[in-house]
Amino acid sequence: MLSTAVIAGLMYFLISTIDQTQKVWVRTNEKITEFQSARSAFESMTRRLSQATLNTYWRAHDTDISTAKAAFKFRRQSELQLISGPAARFFGATPQLSNLSSPLAQAYPTHAVFFQAPIGYTEESKTVGAATLQTYRNLDSLLATCGYFIEFGSEPNLPAFISTLSPSLPDRYRFRLMEMTIPSEHLTIFQRPKDELGYVDPRVFDESNNYYGGMVDTGRNPIKSWVRPLWMKEAFLREAIPSSSGKSRFSYAHVRAENIIALVILPKLAEKDRVVPGTKTYDPAQLELAPYYEFDSWRILSGGTVTDTSVTPSRTLDNTARDNLLPPIIQVTMVAVDEKAMARIAGQIGSDPSKLAWTDGLFTKATLVKDYATDIQTLEQRLIDDKSKPNYRIFTADIVLRGSKWSRDPQ
Length: 411
Known about the structure:
This protein is α+β, with helices and mostly antiparallel strands. It is built from 7 helices and 17 strands.
């Protein structure tokens, strides 16, 4: 009897251990599977971002274009651009876009980034026998424009036959990471309209035929009355969704991953190059490149040498030191939640993303490293405290831009 009792105890212990192990394995496997698309999207996004280029060159530039003096200096130039910041700023700027998801700030949460990279992407094709081939082939280094942002809305790429089903399927509202790829045939960034005298100015014109003022000013502060650069007119084209009445989508964007609730883009210097603004004092805690998470490689062309009075003591900013430069490092953070939780939440918020306030008020200012860290902690706590108890995963990486030639030296 004693032996039987011992054997029974051992069997109970083994069965309990096996059961617990199986539950842990199933739970772990589910987490790996549910975030697999998010992981793939993150790797694809960071790989493309590392290929960003400005292809800069030096040209003689008159120090004062309002006079006919021959006082030239050489300034770094580029027709290409890397620009990042709050997504709502891009889609809410002038000229106005139609049929966007609303409200804007919650439907396009956190950040977006747009840049040019030699990815060799084209869309024109031709038919050769039974095969459909690209018209432009073997052009692996051809420039195309890329972009990433989050959009809330119904499924933008449903097959056309879905609209004929009866009864019709309900809209499936989700936060989606959108990958925008503008084919090389539609790369209009090299267009330079002429001014009233017939000359093409080295600065870029906007759609109102005024000089492009930049997303940020010479002190790297946001410009409220921001006008999108001309090349975004083609990039942000919208078209009707065939299977949905009255709804539209971006012509050149497609879904890269679902249930992505935050995308944080933070351009920054390497720790060894960080200083207290206005001084030469080394301070690894400083984030001076994009204090409001907004970076514009063209911003330098919006003005000359100015005095920055936002700091004490005031400082003189020589903009020529930052003409058309890529940031050396971009920290990319992406937050994904599980589908089960989002399915429950979607039933509560419907088509109104403002009812979900996970990222509200976050990732708007980063003058110090701790600003970013505090916002990440706040977002995590909000997810933990949420009644839906979503599983979440935070992906983050520092992307070194190979095309960056950052220097504080004006020449």
